[in-house]
Amino acid sequence: MLRDMRVHSHTRTLYHTGAYKRVRIVTIDGGRGVRQWLSQLGLGVGDIVFVKRNAPFGGPILVEHEGTEVAVGRGIAEKILVEDE
Amino acid sequence: MRIVFVGQPNSGKSTLFNVVAGYKSMSANFPGSTVNYTVSKARVGGEVVEVVDLPGTYSLTASSPAETAAKQFLLEEKVDAAVNVVDASLLSRSLEFTLQLIELQIPLVVCLNMIDEAERKGINIDAAKLSGRLGVPVVMTVAAKGIGIDRLFYVARRVAKKRELPSIEIPVRKDVETVLAGLAGSIDGTLAEKYPISKRLLAIKLLEGDDAFLSLANENDRRLVAEHSRMLEETHGQPADMVIAAERHALAMEIAEEASTVSKPHRDIRGSIDNVLMHRVWGYVFLLGIMYLFFVAVFKVGALFEAPLLRMFDSLVSAAAAHMDVSTLLFAIVKGVIQGVAGGVAIVLPYLLPFLFGLAVLEDIGYLPRVAFLMDAFMHRIGLHGTAIVPAILGYGCNVPAVMATRILTSPRDRIIAAVISTLVPCSARMTVIFGLVAFYLGPTWALGLYIFDIFVVAASGKVISKLLPELTPGMILEVPRYQAPALVSLISKTWLRMREFVVVAWPLLIGGSALLALGDYFHVDRFTNAMLSPVTVAALGLPAAVGTTLIFGVLRKELSMIMLIQALGTANVVAVMSPPQIMVFTVFVTFYIPCVATIGALLKEIGAKFTFYTIVYTFLLATLLGVAARAAFGIGLL
Asked: Mind listing the pLDDT tens digit for each residue in B437-457?
């Protein structure tokens, strides 16, 4: 139920984005280390990413950007805010 | 002349290196698995060139030890030319790294690799246009097929001989440039002296917050850096490092777009493979299936060779006995040497070789990151995250690279936990003990059971250590590369490199140790060690006293414990002296007790003396506890 409400709001975390959605990254929290790791893989604020799948049991999210696929753990995905593209 | 290969993980860099250098280096379709650099000599156009393969790194911002190693090498060693291997199908992302290399102002060639992959994805790159924008030569290659490599070396040698430096400085937006120039103009010159880089790059690195440079800065410089960082933050509304990263990001995207044309991609079934292998249900079914088939295959191949080889060596011993006086010292030594060779050739090789080859296949195909994705949630239960599954899996091959691979984890706390639990994973040496004793005498199901039991012990240990180090794990960010058909040259070199370590290091130990044990047996020295260890071996575990000495050898190399067992018991037919339950208890103890000397060395290097000591104590207590539990479960009475 809670999940559905979040899907309808304007911005939400990457973790709460369902699979097969195309979203734009709005902010990345979680410190310099996290930002740098993501930026190395070509992921930064403003980029449009495609959520390919999410793992069960609170597992990671698989996002795709410019041909690169990145698995992002739940803790980090919860600190990335996205909006619908 | 020294030519250095740099590139992001999975760019085909190590494959290229293998093609050039022969069967001497390693590669892996996994981020950051080449932790140390590999050096080789290659003959190119009548000239002997030293080629260096640096660890695959995503950037030079150094957030992991592998990146620090690569950056240090580029800045501090003599580099005649650097070859930046780029995955052509991931041009935009890869160019961010290329831009950082250009900033270093070293002779550089961009090797646009896997152009066949790019074309399959509908991406056509104009190399001339790209070269024009970057100010460095660009050569197209398909390393796995050997295409374009002659041309690459021709250009690299030219660049090295003429010391052709990248011809442009990276442009940034005007206001950023003003801040950069301001900082570059005011920092102390002594900071730049240590590294032969421009003050502008130094300013970039300092604003990025690069620790390698910041730690060298004096107080005044730090104040200047803080001041200029604030200027960028105020005008851009985000931290200085992000402003710099965003500049590079935008420029890389712009250049990539300009240099490539995109058409309709070809159909690629690899895209659908993950619909099964990473599926929320089928993914796990296949993971179990793949692991099961893998171990069954290793066992089948190994068993095929083990029995006939052992028979051959047994008949050698009989032949020696027929021609010599069995009561002499010489016979004792001859027998010891033969049994040492038998252990190495007949028991270890048949299992080790198929295992290492199979692991190399799984690595190069790119399956391991998928396993990390599937297992992330479970790894969190034991206080780690998915990436930590990789050292654990590598541990099945050998604990030494496993402990070293913990460097791919960013948090020191995660590295410690991952390193400790990696030592509990039964490596191929212990696999030979499990297969050679448990599978051989009790049946393969028992061996599989021991492997499954081990997973529980690893998980429980992870949980216990997490409780002792209660910091939160930062979580997983891991590239999941596309599947690649493994190149045979890479598979063979990887198997050979790991195999060679065993042959070179272990065989002399095996043969020497075996002869030593025979000598000890002849002079009855082993009685002393056996008596000393009997509180554990006999009283606690209910094993014959003769196994005591073998456990000491097992610390040298784990497989020695079994080979020495054969020697200590005086027969290759272990079941004649020990009952199947005793064999099980012995194997359980050997699986978990004290890591081998090589692993202890790796632990010392990665997690320090204190935690290494804890690991030794912990594993010894754990092994004794589990051994006693196994004894109780199998109901071995007091002897």
From this structure: 998 889 888 998 999 999 999
CATH number of the domain that B192 lies in? 1.10.287.1770
Residue B372: its chain A contacts at CB < 8 A? 71
- How many structural domains comprise chain B? 3
- Do B130 and B110 form a contact (C-beta atoms < 8 A)? yes
| Minimal C-alpha gap between B212 and chain A (Å) | 15
| Span B210-225, pLDDT tens digits | 877 787 778 888 888 8
Is the CB of B464 inside 8 Å of chain A's CB atoms? Answer: no
* Domain span at B219: 174-262
Complete domains list, chain A, with CATH: 2-84 (2.30.30.90)
Helix, strand and coil content of chain B, in percent to the nearest 5, comes to 70, 5, 25
Is the residue at B268 inside a domain? no
Whether B479 and chain A come into contact, CB under 8 Å, resolves to yes
Q: Mark yes or no for CB contact A33/B245 under 8 Å.
A: no
Note whether B48 and B149 are same-domain residues: yes
CB contacts of A76 in chain B (<8 Å) are 474-477
Judge if B72 and B120 occupy the same domain.
yes
Amino acid letter at B516? L
The dihedral formed by the CA atoms of A17, A23, A25 and A26, expressed in degrees to the nearest 10: -90
Residue B277 domain flag? no
Q: How far apart are CA B245 and CA B61, in angstroms?
A: 10
Question: Given B63, B209, B380, which is nearest A37 (Cβ)?
Answer: B63
Say if residue B489 is in the same domain as residue B397.
Answer: yes
Task: Render pLDDT for B350-382 as a digit per residue (tens, 0 to 9).
Answer: 877 888 888 889 888 999 899 999 999 999 988
Partner B contacted by A18 (CB < 8 A): no
Strands (E) across B88-169 are located at 108-113, 123-125, 138-140
